[in-house]
Amino acid sequence: MTDEELVRRYVADRDPADFRELVERQAPRVLRLVASVLGPYRQGDVEETVQDVFVRLHEKIDRFHGGATFATWLYRVAYNLAIDRAKLARLRLPHLDIDAMHALASASDPQRDALTGERAALLAEAVEQLPDLYRSVIYLHYWQETPVDEIAALLGAPPNTVKSYLFRARERIGRLLAEKGLTS
Questions:
Q1: Which of 42, 64, 67, 131 has its CA 20 to 30 A from that of 99?
Q2: Taking a C-beta distance cutoff of 8 angstroms, is the pair 169, 138 a contact?
Q3: First to last CA, the chain
């Protein structure tokens, strides 16, 4: 049974098992998309946003009319909610969670570690300065190792467009790092 058929059945019968099946089918990709928008250090926000996506789905499922595939419609909802959450998160002070700080700590070579940590911080700062779409594509491709075709499906864009986004994002990151005096 397709997602669209399952949605129609759920809207007609409101059988919780149908909704549960929709969630189980889509949760991994929704999680991946939301994580790509929010980034690697916001796991709590990622989990809350994914829950919000499925709450919103439950509330608004009657609005799905099949103009696009169900997955495309749901990913647009997820992307928009994640963007909203990211905007709210930017209002708070940025921080690293304790696990990230421990991962950066090392007693092997303090000078090298300091330089590596500084480069990593500058890179993270540059990625955070990207427009939401470019940042999401960078996180999906490099952090989550998502293939270009899957990113294209998540964003509803052709694969060549995703490749262009990656190229432009890398260019912007390079310029931002050069402005900070960091080259290759």
A1: 131
A2: yes
A3: 50
d(CA 3, CA 21): 9
Angle (nearest 5°) at CA 105 between 94 and 115: 80
What are the pLDDT digits (tens) for 104-132? 555 555 555 555 667 777 888 888 888 88
Question: Using one digit for the tens of pLDDT, what is the confidence trace for 28-53?
Answer: 999 989 988 888 777 888 999 999 99
Residue holding tokens 């250090």?
41
Q: What is the pTM assigned to this prediction?
A: 0.62
Measure the CA–CA gap between 45 and 111, rounded to whole angstroms.
34
Radius of gyration of the chain measured on its C-alpha atoms: 19
Query: 48: burial class by Cβ within 10 Å (0-12, 13-18, 19+)?
Result: middle
Burial class (CB in 10 A: 0-12, 13-18, 19+), 154: buried
DSSP string, the chain: --HHHHHHHHHHH--HHHHHHHHHHHHHHHHHHHHHHH-TT-HHHHHHHHHHHHHHHHHHGGG--SSS-HHHHHHHHHHHHHHHHHHHHHHSPP---HHHHHHH--SS-HHHHHHHHHHHHHHHHHHHTS-HHHHHHHIIIIIS---HHHHHHHHT--HHHHHHHHHHHHHHHHHHHHHTT---
